[in-house]
Amino acid sequence: MLLLNETNVSLETFGLLDDGVSAALDSFADNVYEDMDHEWLYDDSMDGIDESAVGAALGVAPMAFQAWFTPFNEGRYVHPSAADEPEGAAQ
Asked: What average pLDDT does the segment 32-48 reach?
């Protein structure tokens, strides 16, 4: 959301944020994320929620760095540069 907010500010500053552009950005924001859990990374009060009973009940995905590129479920495309290396692979 940070980048979308900055995009809005920049477009508005240069007079480029008309109704069509605004609608396109809103549509993008509505469809780009599966959920908004990632916003909790910027909220100190949510530290550790992914490891708590509350987080488990809410279905909060793991937020530790090593889990950032892990797909939420089987069958999702993972870019090769983000895929975990197989056990014993040379680094």
From this structure: 82
Per the listing, tokens 């009060």 go with 45
Question: What values do phi and psi take at 39, rounded to 5?
Answer: -65, -25
Element spanning 19, H or E? helix 19-32
Please state the φ and ψ torsions of residue 47, each to the nearest 5 degrees.
-55, 125
How many beta carbons lie within 10 A of that of residue 8, not counting itself?
16
Split at pLDDT 50, 70, 90, the class of 33 is: confident
Q: Which two tokens stand for residue 27?
A: 């549509």
CA distances from residue 82 to 28, 38, 75 in whole angstroms, order as listed? 23, 18, 15
**pTM here?**
0.50
SS3 breakdown of the chain: % helix, strand, coil, rounded to 5?
A: 55, 0, 45
Query: How many whole angstroms separate alpha carbon 73 and alpha carbon 13?
Result: 40
Q: Token digits for 75?
A: 């069958």
